[in-house]
Amino acid sequence: MCISMYLVAYLVGNLHLTSAKSETIVTNFMGTLNLLGLLGGFVADAKLGRYLTVLLSATLTALGITLLTIATSVLRMRPPACEGNQECIEATGSQLALLYAALYLTALGGGGIKSNVSGFGSDQFDSSDPKEEKSLIFFFNRFYFGISIGSLFAVLVLVYIQDNIGR
């Protein structure tokens, strides 16, 4: 996810956390995101089905991103800016609480989406028909190519925003 690309810089630069703490937060977030794919697959297979799981997961992800936007935009959710040779004040637990909630809500939703959304594409093809089987291979090539291009585009846009528009 694109969130992790800039998260260490945000945690160190804006919340004045140490590099070690920041890297731990990002590693835990990414590990949780990837491991929750197992939970998303289980929930879809055993309980809710793929459609409902993806719908619920997308809602959780949207809520997490909304909370993340609030956590990074509201000035009270950050420590005061460092000026001159002043020692920077590290973010408090209450300032980090909303950020943690936002990250892990996003991870929970992302785990459900990652493990189930590609299955919708494969459901559209009949694997017993050779022509459809070739189309299925073409679909997955384009699906993962689109994900890769989207990730590349997101990182490039993020770097542009950070360098030209960011605070």
From TrEMBL:
Annotated signal peptide: 1-20
Stretches assigned to the Major facilitator superfamily (MFS) profile domain: 1-167
Domain of life: Eukaryota
Keyword flag Transmembrane: yes
Main localisation: membrane
Compartments, as annotated in UniProt: Membrane
Sequence intervals crossing the membrane: 25-44, 51-71, 143-161
A GO molecular-function descriptor: transmembrane transporter activity
Membrane topology, as annotated: Multi-pass membrane protein
Protein name listed in UniProt: Putative proton-dependent oligopeptide transporter family, major facilitator superfamily
Lineage of origin: Eukaryota, Viridiplantae, Streptophyta, Embryophyta, Tracheophyta
